[in-house]
Amino acid sequence: MNCIIPFEKKLKFEGNIKEIVSISLEHEVTQNTDEVLGNFIISGTYKEHELSVNTEDFKFVVPFSVELDKKIDKDSFEFWIDNFTYDIEGSEMLVKIDYAMSADEINEEESERTTEEPVDLIVPLKKEEEPIEEKEDKDERDEIEPMEEKPEEIKDERIDTGVISGLETEDDYMMYKIHIVKEEESLESICQSHNIDKDELLKLNDINDVTKGDKLIIPYPNE
Q1: Contact predicate 18/48, CB 8 Å
Q2: pLDDT in tens, 52-107
């Protein structure tokens, strides 16, 4: 995100303004992932009469806020004043401020995964144990290291994020990610986005179609 935002505000003085002798603009800003809040601090001195040698002080604190269309990374946020001008109208001063902001945007899908569901699931699949031939020599049997206990076979196991069914693989582990279906998405767009065959996606999730909010198991491609 990188943008310049115009801002205008009329400031009312107690008396007429004949001349602005000095003026300064400062700002204070806070931000979260959805909006930016802050204050412009405008201060200086002015004359009420052309021939007057006396000056009056002024100071205005002007709040501003901006709602963001996309979530931003707060650590990458930057804010600065791009331009500042003013016009005198009787006892009022019209200030015009162009301020700029930049920040990295947070991917919406990654944000949902971070807050709602684990991204990766490692599913161990049992491999058949090879029988160990018995040795006649007792000493040789004692030297054989015990086999590590294998995880029990998983068949159609239901996980918080969906149902795995009909898995067939020669690997010890399979890597998956969870995709939450959005309103505008279809089976075709999901398959195209994740480079997966439609029949494979339907079979893996044991479904015929998708609706908004469904959680689909998407296998990572084999490397």
Answers
A1: yes
A2: 888 999 999 999 998 877 788 888 888 999 999 999 988 999 999 999 988 888 77
Terminal Cα distance for the chain, rounded? 34
In sign, the C-alpha dihedral spanning 207, 213, 216, 220 is positive
Residue 157: strand, helix, or coil: coil
**Separation between Cα atoms, residue 204 and residue 213, nearest integer Å:** 17
Pair 217, 210: CB distance under 8 Å: no
* Global confidence as pTM: 0.46
Q: Are 36 and 68 in contact (CB under 8 A)?
A: yes
- 3-state DSSP call for residue 61? strand
Encode burial over 174-184: b for 16+ CB neighbours within 10 A, e otherwise.
Answer: bebbbbbbeee
Residues 4/100, Cβ–Cβ less than 8 Å: yes
Cα–Cα dist 216/186, whole Å = 12
Chain position carrying tokens 């002798």: 21
- What tens digit of pLDDT does each residue of 122-163 get? 445 455 555 555 555 555 555 555 555 554 443 333 334 444
Place of tokens 């899908």: 109
**Calpha distance 120→106 (Å, rounded):** 19
Nearest-angstrom CA–CA distance, 159 and 165 = 11
Q: Which residues pair with residue 20 across a beta bridge?
A: 46
CB 48 within 8 A of CB 17: yes
- Rg, Å, the chain Cα set: 33
